[in-house]
Amino acid sequence: MDTLFSIKDVIAVLKKSILWIVSFAVGGLVIAGLAVYLLITPMYADNTQILVSQTSENENAISQNAEVQANLQLVNTYRVLLTSPRILNEVEKNIDEAYTADELADKITVSTEQDSQVMNITATDSDPEMAATIANETAQAFKKITPTVMKVDNINILSKAHAAENPVPVSPKPYLVMALGLLAGTLFGIIFAFARNLLYNTFKEEKDIEALDVPLLGSIGKLPSYKSNARQKKGEFNEKQTIS
Question: Is the CATH code 3.30.70.1130 the one for domain 43-56+64-171?
Fold first, then answer.
């Protein structure tokens, strides 16, 4: 069965348009690099850890194990509470309304390890100091409000967020973005090469005709360059003036 392109044709097209492909690849790399360092705002993240449990005077091991399992089942409830308007409104007040509660909800993520009562509160912001402040204020608001809402009497903040002296942005990832730009540029270059080959409908060499399996009746060689009679006479006239 005939195919549009054989492997040999594909290689020939790629070789023929290698400069175009390289140009597109370099262009994609440069555009991605400019976007990373000039257009995209770097985001920083900081986190704090809290432990939520219920104290009990019962020293029975079975009872304590049951309480731990109950606390683990409540972790998802605590996660929802951490990003609830009641908590975020408190955080909004404590940061002097730098962000609204809705904006804070987009900046805060809560994660937990499997079978663990420890929750990680991670805040992201373009300012590393603000990211640490949001994380800490969220933990403090949770510690203040949760006992009255959930009847939990033991909330411990295990670690506070601190902005590093030389913070590293969590996004964007420069090398990843530039690699994607290089890959996208190369892909566009290959697409352009095949589109250019399909739309190219002129013949410049005898092998282009031979590829169609049709006989070559004749060819016209390259015409020599020549000067018109008027230009030749003008040139002779200028030479005579120069000699005289």
Answer: yes
Concatenated DSSP letters for 45-111? EEEEEEEEE---S---HHHHHHHHHHHHHTHHHHHHHHTSHHHHHHHHHHTTTSS-HHHHHHHEEEE
Closest C-alpha among 41, 35, 68 to residue 53:
68
Q: Side chain identity at 106, as an amino acid letter? A: D
Greater confidence, 71 or 195? 195
> Tokens 């069965």 appear where?
1
Here the tokens at position 211 are 């590829």
| Average of per-residue pLDDT values in the chain | 80
Domain ranges of the chain: 8-39+173-201, 43-56+64-171
> What Rg, from alpha-carbon coordinates, does the chain have?
36
